[in-house]
Amino acid sequence: MKALKILSLSSYGLRYKLKISFYLMSVLPILICFYLISTYILPTVGIQLNIVVLIAVSVFIAASGFFIVKQIIHPIINISSQAKGIVNGNIDYQIQAERHDEIGEIEKALDKLTARIRDNRRELDTLMQKVKNLEVRDALTGLYNESFIKTRLDEEIKRAIMYQRPCAFIIFSVDRYKELCQDLSLPEIELIFKRIAIILKESITDIDKAARLGEREFALLLPEKNKKQAQNIAEVIKKRIEEIFRAEPDKHKRITISLGVAENPIDGVNTSELISKAKESL
């Protein structure tokens, strides 16, 4: 086995294989010239045997040269295909490096590269998830998102209980939302939500918090406000929103708003209870 490995070309470099291939391919035209000379210039008695020998040797040499070239070209084509797959995002497979020449080194390097890309992708996914968890704003409206407002509501409820102060929570829901999605395009609906968000931000104080709660709902967190005060604020905001959209030329954009109000601790002593009560009163 050791002797066969020494004789095998797979352990030699590309430069050595190319030299061998060049030499073998060069021998063929030399033999053809020799054949022509021996046939037409120096005819002998044993010329038929020479022809057979020369043809056999020529075929063997040509086949050997072709085999060596194939050993070089075929792996390069495979590596090229694998590299294209990596460029297109296919990094899930592992490259098996079985050669011991420069091509084998390239395969090993490519395998390490894909492994590093997989690791970096996992790290990036983990990092993106952490960043997403740290986000506090809704991407469309710029209001606080649902996760943040729930966390802040929980903190305000605890503070209100400790100091025996009121804390109100309002939910606004866009009416006929399914019909709205059927009648209007997505950009038109997004524009409506952005306008509602602007009205909410303009209608609250610095200590209040406005948020987008779900797909069609908005919320206001009002510390130091009781249910009656929150109800009055909600009615004013509802009236303002509906008056603005009532002026729209397109009747499909003339939206109406439903609202629900809840107060701690009358309607609940934790976040889930307060939100549930506000939704029930929509």
Structure in words:
The protein has nine helices and four strands; from the N terminus they run H-H-H-H-H-E-H-H-E-E-H-E-H. Helices cover about 65% and strands about 10% of the residues. A hairpin with a 3-residue loop joins strand 2 (about 210-215) and strand 3. It has a four-stranded antiparallel β-sheet with strand order 2-3-1-4, sandwiched between helices. It is of the alpha+beta class. The radius of gyration is 40 Å and the shape is elongated.
Order of helices and strands: HHHHHEHHEEHEH
- The 3D shape can be described as elongated
Low-confidence stretches: 1-9
Alpha plus pi helix count: 9
Helix-strand category:
alpha+beta
- Biggest sheet features: 4 strands, antiparallel
Helical residues, percent? 55-70%
Arithmetic mean of pLDDT: 80
Q: Could you tell me the number of beta strands?
A: 4
List the keywords.
single chain, 282 residues, alpha+beta, four-stranded antiparallel beta sheet, 9 helices, 10% strand, elongated, disordered N terminus
Architecture blueprint of SSEs:
Elements: H1 2-7, H2 14-41, H3 47-87, H4 102-134, H5 146-163, E1 167-174, H6 177-183, H7 186-202, E2 209-213, E3 217-223, H8 227-246, E4 257-264, H9 271-280
Antiparallel strand pairs: 1-3, 1-4, 2-3
Helix pairs in contact: 2-3, 3-4
